[in-house]
Amino acid sequence: MKKHKVWFVTGASRGFGLEIVKEALASGDKVVATVRNAPELLASKLGNPDNLEVAVLDVTDERQAYHAAGQAAERFGTIDVLVNNAGFGLLGAVEEATDDEVKRNFEANVFGLLNVTRATLPHMRKARSGHVINISSVGGLTGIVGWGLYGSTKFAVEGLTEAMAKELAPLGIHATVVEPGFFRTEFLDASSLTRSSRVIDDYAETVGEMRNFATKVNKKQPGDPVKLAKAIILLANAENPPVHLPMGKDALAFFKEKMDHFEKDIKEWYDVITGTDHDDVVSATNE
Questions:
Q1: Pick the catalytic residue: 5, 30, 136, 203?
Q2: Does 150 participate in catalysis according to the annotation?
Q3: What's this model's pTM, rounded to 2 decimal places?
Q4: Are 151 and 137 in contact (CB under 8 A)?
Q5: Is 66 a catalytic residue?
Q6: Looking at residue 156, what is its pLDDT?
Q7: Is there a catalytic annotation at residue 13?
Q8: Which phi and psi angles does 12 have, rounded to 5°?
Q9: Would you tell me which CATH number, out of the four given (1.20.1250.20, 3.20.190.10, 3.40.50.720, 3.40.640.10), belongs to the domain 6-247?
């Protein structure tokens, strides 16, 4: 008999977060869905089911994160699955974005994720079970023109998740980082995407083209967010979940291209790469 799980999903008002909440509720699981404001609107949109709790949470507010996690445990007893989904995009050349624009992106995408993770993990450690699912991006697997700064927040999420997977495994807790490609959500809308306020003409052929592409492709992306949500349900119920889970053929293509370039560079620079150890280390290895 299936044991119903308790989910804690951030950024649940739209996009991936909303679709994941819908699928988890439909499966009979209990869900704490967090939004920055107007929780009654989301609850009403979802039909006010008994297995739903909507909590107010700005992930950049650590005290709110602990309060929301406590609210979840009080209502449903524990937290089995954390989905760190809240965040937003930043489009612009690395040089173009201001210090404030970059810091705000890191506050939400990295430090906000850490706030929520620290608030929920004590409940999982107490139960000696759970699953932390961090929503990253194909931009966290490889650098993409115009998305370097946003991607750097997701590269951070990749590293955090890899370390957490090793730290949490002895405690019976899994950690997975999910890397979606381009999905047909509100991500490219003004409500979810910030564009650097400064535009430098020298980047017109690279970042400028990406800005144009982002406008044209909006709502025409290949990925289906409903299918991604169904995949997240499968992931949460897997006995041996992966640490990395790219989503979409485009994400896989980007990653394979990166690995091909990586392998090529290693072959061409192999002697330099392997020639930087101390001589005593080399000789000891050869003995």
A1: 136
A2: yes
A3: 0.92
A4: yes
A5: no
A6: 98
A7: no
A8: -95, 5
A9: 3.40.50.720
